[in-house]
Amino acid sequence: MTDYIARKVARAGTWSGSFDRCVMTYDERFLRRKVVKTADDDALLVDLAQTTSVNNRDAFVLTDGRLIEIIAASEELYAVQGNLIQLAWHIGNRHTPCQITESRLLIQRDKVIGHMLEHLGANVTEVFEPFSPEGGAYGHGRTHAHEHGHTAHDH
Predict the structure, then answer these.
(1) What are the C-alpha distances in Å from 107 to residues 27, 37, 51, 80, 115?
(2) According to the model, what pLDDT value does residue 151 have?
(3) 65: helix, coil or strand?
(4) Superfamily of domain covering 4-72
């Protein structure tokens, strides 16, 4: 039994006044229809029209108009330092989600990518913090892997 139903998302900065929160990892924040737990341990059915990537500080809009804030959960990441432009290129070339700051890159822990980055001269450190990677080319954000098979004739 679900306590709440949300069919819409309000983007960060466009709303105020949530009464509860959902703390979710990066992978959990990519959803269409799913029951999630709120911080108050209530069940929320998220039932969106299409698969959506929700971000830190967005909010689920309940059918009664109330709001539940979305918080990026801390998770196991690598902090990557070094020649950030070169390293970001290699990370992006492998379609790995990446959070970019002036002093470091953050990626989900993956030993193969971590070793590759170290071979490129990166300093790779394990950290545990929220993950909010960049949105993807042309602002479309995440897509399912099966949507990647486009040819030049599709565009």
Answers:
(1) 12, 25, 22, 8, 13
(2) 39
(3) coil
(4) Urease metallochaperone UreE, N-terminal domain (2.60.260.20)
